[in-house]
Amino acid sequence: MGDEEINGDETPESFDDLSFSFQPSSLILSESRPTWAEINLDNLVHNFREMKEVVDPDVAILVAVKADAYGHGAPDCARALERAGASWFGVALPEEGVALRESGIRRPILCLGGFWEGQEDMLIARGLTAAIFRPDLLELLDRAARRAGRIASYHLKVDTGMGRLGVPHRELGDFLDHTARFEKVRLEGVMSHFPSADEPEKDEFTNNQMDLLEEAVEMVRARGHNPTWIHQANSAAAHAYPRSHGNLIRIGGVAYGLWRDATSPDVEPLDWQPVMSLHTRIMFLKTVPPGTPLGYGGLFVTERESRVATLAIGYEDGLPGTLSNRGRVILHGRFAPIVGRVSMDLTLVDVTDVAGVEVGDEVIIIGRQGACHITAEDIAEMTGTISYEITCRISDRVPRVYIGGG
Ligand SMILES: *Cc1c(COP(=O)(O)O)cnc(C)c1O
How far apart (Å, rounded) are the C-alpha atoms in residues 97 and 62? Predict the structure, then answer.
């Protein structure tokens, strides 16, 4: 350190000087509240193997475990997948990669969203690989590698049509010229991403993206780089476009058994099994006369004498508020409609037509019971989103209960 005195009263000049204390959840969950998400790790491993079986033996698999494994719990999912032979894990933020390392994951981890200035030393210290799409970020990585006395690997992200992150394909030459002087970094992978590989009507667009990535790889090789990994396929492309596989595919959705709204309707699905089911119990039960308003705003008014159950789950737990007065749940192997507004912690269902209902009975929000089945895709369709968002939003307040996983 230099001779400058540090004045404790001064405002820090950069965020590096502030110490953040980040706790994703300060809540100590009790097992007494009967609302939980069951995570079937056997199904996760099964889905992984389903995919593994249909790709060439020399194609490795990266499983995206960003956003806490799409709400399924990244540490437990990654540990089960690591044992099952996943070659890579994909996270959005370096912080998520650090959390994986803390939970014992040893396989390579790709930070799909790159990193922020200030995180480059951490990447190297924790053995995290960054996707790179800006020359200044590569420069930071190069300097951090020099400081650490190491060579840092990165994957070059090329935009072939996603229009989000990635060096625009036509600017790739300039990018490579500009970054040729960085000696402490190694271009270990070339990657891109598909926006529409699940849409058969965009077949031409998707094929064009694959052509552009091929060109990009040639260009990279022509300048003396020797990338180990070429990858572009997400779940949708891995399923519908074998040509897209390169030597690494990146799957998220299908690994979690979320596929109905993520893969092409024109290609036969594999045997993908849902990994998450969401459960709660009845905490209060009453019979009310016709004309009784229920919940905030009296959004529902009974038309008959009704048996109404109050469930221990609300939108804070991740049950979408847009299911107010229109969703349904399963109990006693039957469907029962959600009535009134879904509130923060509680939801009402009309159980008049279900016999023998009692306080404490289990209710399925996502999952199967008897002949009835509700998928995350069903809920997504009703609420105008995709299944990933439904499972991602199951909050930290809902304990994950893991079964199987070897
Ligand atoms: C999340 C993600 C994937 C996985 O996508 P799925 O549709 O869940 O298979 C692949 N690549 C990138 C860059 C991603 O961010």
Answer: 14
